[in-house]
Amino acid sequence: MDSSAPQLIHWTENGEQHSARWRSESGMPPPKRVAIADDTTNADTAYRLACEGTALLWRGDYQNAKQLLQALARRADRSGKPKKSKAVKVPATPTEAFHLHRQAQSQRGRTLAMLLIPFDADYTIPLRRAPDVKQACNEAYGKGEQPFIASLRELLGLIGAHEWRRNGVMIPALGERIHPHYGVFSPVRGEYVALVNDVPLPANTKLAFDIGVGTGVLSAVLARRGIPRIIATDQDPRALSCAKENLALLGVNEQVELLKTNLFPEGRANLVVCNPPWVPARPSSPIEYAVYDPDSAMLRGFLAGLKDHLLPGGEGWLILSDLAEHLGLRPREQLLEWIAAAGLKVKQRHDVRPTHGKATDASDPLHAARAAEVTSLWKLETA
Q1: Is pLDDT at 4 greater than 50 in this prediction?
Q2: Other CB atoms closer than 10 Å to residue 349's CB: what's the count?
Q3: Using CA atoms, how far apart are residues 114 and 37, in angstroms rounded to an integer?
Q4: pLDDT digits (tens, 9 = 90+) for 51-91
Q5: Neighbours of 135 (CB within 10 A)
Q6: E strands within 169-293?
Q7: Cβ(190)–Cβ(150) under 8 Å?
Q8: Where is this region: Disordered (predicted)?
Q9: What average pLDDT does the segment 27-49 reach?
C-alpha cells in the first residue's frame, strides 16, 4: 500500500467523529459503517452486523476478541451448510464447484474481516491482554509510522506467518529448512521440489535461470546439485528479500544472483526453470497471486519467451500441476497448443502424485479434482 496516500477509516465514538489510517494486505477497502464493540457484545449480534457490512472496532479485552472471532467463524461455517429441510444443490461440473467454493471462501473472509483492532504507531495494540506483535508486524509491514486500524483476522495471519518464518519448512531435498516470509508462497508441496532435485540435468549445465524465485527453494536445490551460476528473478520485493535470506542461510548465495524483473533476465542458459501459479483464476487479494494466475498470464509468458532464452541443447523445466485440468479451467490440449505455438516441443515429462492432506480429504469440496491431481515436470526444448 502507498504510505504517501493512506486510506482512512472513519467512525463515531462517544459522540465524536474519529478517523485513522486503514491497513489491509488483502486489498479490502475501509468499511463504510463502523460500530464500537467490547466484552459486552454477544456473538449473534456481532455476526449479524458483520454480515450486513458493519465493521466492529474492538475496545475490550484482546483475548475476548479472539474468542469472538472464533464464534463468528463457527457461525459462518454453519451458515455455509445447506439446511436439512432444503435440497442440496450438487454442482453440475467441477468448474462450478470451484467457483462456488471460491465464492463461499470470499464471503466468509469478508465477514470475518469485520472485527477490527487498533494499533499504535509502534505496533503496540492498546487493548487489555494484547500480545507483543511488533516483530510480526515489522516483518510484514516494515517500520511503523502512524497509528492504524486493521482486522484481527489479518493480524492472526501475520502472527502465523511469523511462526512459519521462525520455524521454517523442512525440505527433504535439501536436508534443511526454508524460511518463508509473509506474502511469499511457502514450499509445503514437497513433491515439486523433489522433481527438480531428482530429474537429470542437461549435460554441462553452467548457467540456469529460476523464473519466479519465491522463497529461493528451487535455486537452492539447483545450486546444491552443482550448477555454478544461477540467475533468479521475481517482481515481488518480498520474494527477493525472502530468497536472499534463505540462500544465505543455506550457504549458496554466491552461486545465485537475484534480479527484480518480469520473467526472464537477459541472455540464454542451459536450463530455465519455472514453477508458475497453477490455477488460472483471478486472485481475491494480492497475496493470492502465488496460487492464482489470471488467464494463465505467467504460464503463457514463460512459454512464449523460453525459446529465446535457451542455449543450443538447453532445456526449459515447467513445473505444473494438472489440477486446473480436473477443475475444467484449462484443458491439456490448450497447454500443448501454447507449447507448440512457442516453437517448443516436449522432450520428456516426469509425473508425481501430491501427498498433501487435501489430496485425501473427502470432505474437501474439490476432493474429486484433488484426488486425481498429478504434478509434472515438463522438459521442453526448441522444436
Answers
A1: yes
A2: 13
A3: 11
A4: 999 999 999 999 999 999 999 999 998 876 655 555 555 66
A5: 14
A6: 169-171, 176-178, 207-211, 229-234, 256-260, 269-274
A7: no
A8: 1-31
A9: 96
Q: Residue 152 and residue 157: Cα distance in Å, rounded?
A: 9
Collect all residues with Cβ–Cβ distance below 8 Å to 244 and sequence separation of at least 6: 216, 253, 258
Q: At what angle do helices 190-198 and 217-224 cross, to 10 degrees?
A: 30
Residue type, 336: L
Q: Which of 113, 129, 164 is the last residue of a domain?
A: 164
What is the pLDDT averaged over residues 183-205? 92
| Closest to 58 in 3D by CA, of 8, 66, 160 | 66
Please indicate, yes or no, whether residues 287 and 153 belong to a single structural domain of this protein. Answer: no
Task: With residue 110 as reference, give the H or E element that holds it.
Answer: helix 94-112
Residue 338: C-alpha distances to residues 264, 278, 279, 280 (Å): 18, 15, 16, 14
The closest of 123, 114, 137 to 37, measured between CA atoms, is 114
Q: Which structural domain, as residue segments, surrounds residue 84?
A: 8-164
Say which residue the cell 511488533 belongs to.
134
Q: Has residue 356 been placed in a domain?
A: yes
214 occurs within a structural domain:
yes
- What lies within 8 Å, CB to CB, of 114 at 6+ separation is 31, 49, 50, 53, 54, 55, 56, 151
Residue pair 152/69 in contact (Cβ under 8 Å)? The answer is yes
Q: Is the dihedral of CA 183, 185, 188, 193 positive or negative?
A: negative
- Paired sense of beta strands 310-321 and 344-352, if any: unpaired
Contacts 24+ apart (CB under 8 A), 164-170: 165/139
Lowest average pLDDT, out of 74-88, 168-182, 234-248, 312-326, goes to 74-88
Q: Find the CATH number of the domain harbouring 348.
A: 3.40.50.150
| 195 contacts 352 by C-beta, under 8 angstroms | yes
With respect to residue 2, please indicate whether it lies within any of the assigned structural domains.
no
Cα–Cα distance measured from residue 139 to residue 79, given in angstroms and rounded to the nearest whole number: 35
1 found inside a domain: no
Cell readout for 344 is 517448443
> Are 259 and 265 spatial neighbours (Cβ–Cβ below 8 Å)?
yes
β-strand pairing of 8-13 with 16-22:
antiparallel
Q: Which residues contact 298 (CB under 8 A, 6 or more apart)?
A: 212, 263, 274, 276, 277
Cell numbers 504507531 label which residue?
121
Whole-prediction pTM = 0.89
Q: Domain boundary at 103, 138, 164, which?
A: 164
